[in-house]
Amino acid sequence: MAETTNSEVHTWPHIPQIQWESVYGPISNTTITTFLFLIIVLIFSVFWNRALKSEKKSRFKMFLITTMRLLDNYLKDSFADNKFARLYFPLIVWIFFIILFWNLFGLVIDWFTWALPMLKLEEYLRPMHSDVNTTLVLAVIAMFFSIYIAVKTSGWIKVSKGYLFNFTGHSFWEKCINVFVGWLHFIWIPSTIAALSLRLFGNIFAGIILIGVITYLWAQVTSNLHLLDLGRLFSLPFWFFEIFVAFIQAAVFAGLMIAYFNQSKEDTHH
Q1: Helix count (H) and strand count (E) of the chain?
Q2: Which CA distances in Å does 44 have to 38, 90, 178, 182, 247?
Q3: Which of 6, 18, 56, 169 could be a cystine partner for 174, CB 3.0 to 4.6 Å?
Q4: What pTM, to 2 d.p., does this model score?
């Protein structure tokens, strides 16, 4: 009876841990994925640069120019300040494309992981935004520049006073309320960082679990019915849905950065 129990093999959907998994010492599967993605970005940047410098009006060049022009106009309308929009255009657009393409690259990794299970790619590759450390870094960058803009606009003394002891107002009670509101704004900084990072992490991580479970269930059904291993094909609609989610997550994060930068530029902490 014991031999029968030990010989049974159970297969389950691969559900990654909330934190990264170590591959070799301090090198994690997220680290390997990041470096692989950076290599792809470097190669794409070379083609991007050549296309922009080329005198030929290729479709790829026109697509890049049109995309950058649309984003530039959008930021100008959002900030109502052309100089300010151009100054932070590289940062916001970079964050937008990083989130978008990181998520799309994560979907490619998931697909190969489930299509080629014998390679055990999940042990070496992991979508970068499914690691909370990655999303935390992006959130810290967004909040750092938000505070930097506030300090650059009003000065660090006024900003510090607004956060720590904004004892201003016409009456004593109004002054006390302003002090309390300043403390709330100070608490808003770490809570915003947590909200930005956990929202992005939660959506991407949930997408990985969803695709993994759906693929596993369909694979089990089709294999039991002797219909070949068609489970991965039936899960394709969920992959297309996650492509849409990737774009939405990138747009929402960039939109929140614009809102925070506008708030800091308008000096709402006085």
Answers
A1: 9, 2
A2: 10, 17, 51, 45, 19
A3: 169
A4: 0.78
Name, in order, each residue with C-beta under 8 angstroms of 259's C-beta and a sequence gap of 6 or more.
none
- What's the distance, CA 166 to chain centroid? 35
For residues 152 and 258, the answer to whether their CB atoms sit within 8 Å is: no
14-30 tens-digit pLDDT:
566 666 677 777 777 88
**Cα–Cα dist 67/50, whole Å:** 17
Residue 98's identity, in one-letter code, is I
In this structure, what are the phi and psi dihedrals at residue 22, rounded to the nearest 5 degrees? -75, 135
CB 259 within 8 A of CB 247: no
The amino acid occupying position 227 is L
Instruction: State how beta strands 22-24 and 27-28 pair.
Output: antiparallel
d(CA 123, CA 119): 9
Residue 59, burial from CB neighbour count under 10 angstroms (0-12, 13-18, 19+): exposed
Contacts of 159 (CB under 8 A, 6+ apart): 147, 150, 151, 269
